[in-house]
Amino acid sequence: MITFTKPLAKLIEHFERFPGIGPRTAQRLALYILKQPEKTIKDFSQSLLEAHNNVGQCKSCFNLTSELECEICRNPDRDQKLICVVAETKDLLALERAREYKGHYHVIGGLISPMDSIGPELLEIKSLVERVSKNEINEIILALTPSVEGDTTSLYIAKLLSPFTKVTRIAYGLPMGSELEYVDEVTLARALEGRTDIL
After folding, report:
1. pTM of this prediction?
2. Domain ranges of the chain
3. Are the CB atoms for 119 and 60 separated by under 8 Å?
4. Which of 38, 83, 107, 197 is least crowded, fewest Cβ atoms below 10 Å from its Cβ?
5. 6-54 belongs to which CATH class?
6. What is the mean pLDDT of each run of 10 residues along the chain (199 residues)?
7. What is the CATH number of domain 64-197?
8. Chain centroid to CA 68: how far?
9. What is the DSSP string of 104-163?
C-alpha cells in the first residue's frame, strides 16, 4: 500500500469525495495541483469560495444562479408557457446541451424515494404547483430519470398538474436507470421531440 505524506494524503482524500472520482483520479488531480504556481492555486481556491458563497437558487425555477433569477428565466426569448421539470441542475444542463428546448425549467431538487426518506414535501413540487396554477402554462414536460423513483415522481406530479395544463413526458431512447447527464445530445433532442401525454 502506498503511503503519502499527510498534506498530500488529505488533498487526495478531499478529491475522492467528489462524485465519479476514484482513488487513482484523485491522486492524479492532487499531483497536478502540487505542480501549479501559487497564483493559480490561490485563484482556484478563491473561485471555490466565491461559488460557494454567491451561488444560490433561482426564485422562480430553483436553477443555480448568483442573481435573484437565473439567466434562463430572465431570457425574454424563452417560451414562458412551457415548463420542463427536471430533478437536478445537471439534468437541466444536459437538456440545454441538446439545444432543442426553448422553454423554461423547474428544478425539483431530487426524486421521491421512500427508501431514502425523501417525500414530496422535501422537493420543490409545491412551488411547481403554485407556479402552474398562477400562470398560463400550455404544457409541462416531465424530464425525470427513467427509474422507479423517476416514474413515481412523474406520476405524482402529473396527477397534481393535470387539472391545470397538459402534462407530457419525454420519450426515452435509453434503458431504465440511466442518468440524463450522461445521455448524448441527439438522443435527448429526439426524446424531447417524441414526448407523450403522461395521463
Report:
1. 0.80
2. 6-54, 64-197
3. no
4. 38
5. mainly alpha
6. 85 95 95 96 96 97 97 97 97 93 97 94 97 96 91 95 94 67 74 72
7. 3.40.1360.10
8. 18
9. EEEE--S--BGGGTB-GGGTTHHHHHHHHHHS--SEEEE---SSHHHHHHHHHHHHHHTT
